[in-house]
Amino acid sequence: xRPAYDLLVTDPxxxxxxxxxxxxxxMGRPKALVHDEAGRPWLHRAVDALRDGGCDHxxxxxxxxxxxxxxxxxxxxxxxxxAEDWAAGMSASLRTGLLAAVDHVRRTPRDVGAVVVxxxxxxxVDSRVVERVIRQVGTDPSALGRATYDGSPGHPxxxxxxxxxxxxxxxxxxxxxxxxxxxxxxxxxECSDLATGHDVDSxxx
Length: 205
What we know:
This protein is an alpha/beta fold. The chain has one domain (4-190): Spore Coat Polysaccharide Biosynthesis Protein SpsA, Chain A (Alpha-Beta Complex), CATH 3.90.550. It contains six helices and seven strands; from the N terminus they run βαβαβαβαββααβ. It has helices at 42-52, 66-72, 90-107, 127-137, 161-170, 178-184; strands spanning 13-20, 55-62, 79-82, 112-119, 144-149, 152-160, 187-190. α1 (42-52) links the parallel β1 and β2. α1 (42-52) runs parallel beside α4 and α3 (90-107) runs antiparallel to α5.
């Protein structure tokens, strides 16, 4: 029989971070404002993918036309932050989101170990992908991993809290955490059987 104290030990939770700040130049409008063929906002799909995939809470980073995008999130239990410097590239959104995640961790009584980062323009990356990445990479603060599609790196990316400070220190221009992830080594989780992982740059038909 397991000791009673063992029964109280649980893995840390993860929080989701959805980057949705870009102007969507090739799309013709911010991707945070795009709806799918059924009329459902991409924002909703991405938030649900993170939450249903195992994230305890979701932070959404907006930028271009943030006010319009935030109205689409009315009624959803998420934290919304705006990257004022969103035009500088994805790293600006990532930095804003990670800082918001750190603030959330400080204020929540939950034991949070990792942040799961994804993008709004990956409409076929659903909760199954998020769940697989969390399950195979884990939520320990030392964890580091990402989804791959036919061997190519993609999202979501799982960043244990031990790595957040270094990611913030090394991101620049539009590179996000790419260089840090490559240098540190990480767990790769193949997900091509679940999704393509392709970003979408043209409106749904």
